[in-house]
Amino acid sequence: METVTHTLPPIYRPDSRVLILGSMPSPKSREIGFYYGHPQNRFWRVLAEIFSAPVPADNFEKREFVLNRQIALWDVLSSCEISGADDNSIRNAHPNDIGIILAAAPIRAIFTTGNAATAYYRKLCFPQTGVASIPLPSTSPANCRCHLDELVRQYRKILLYLANADSP
Q: pTM higher than 0.70, yes or no?
């Protein structure tokens, strides 16, 4: 177990409509300095598929990919004790202030990726935001029960909240 402090800034802009929250960046994500950084994590492949776009290749392309599609990214936790990337080992969890993004952008829906992100959001963030999250399955390689086609099917829900993005 190690104590980890979240070091990645939230990714959003004033026109973001959807917020996607993970639990805490993995060691690989912290190493490369961007979200869903493990090469076996399927997050970027899933988003590319639902938007019929190429998979972004680097941190700059990933950032532009989500921002240009009005998606904000962050994580539920600001710090915790964790063993590697094992969300089941999380102890002493402290939340990020999700209100920062909600005050800055007209977020229509908050999605949480995986059981831990969903549980910690409900426990630590929902009481402050009053906005329920929509759970999505984890794209982690550890979630081998959920095949790519099922992840794509589930993540397509995001598109419903981006439709007619010209209206508030």
A: yes
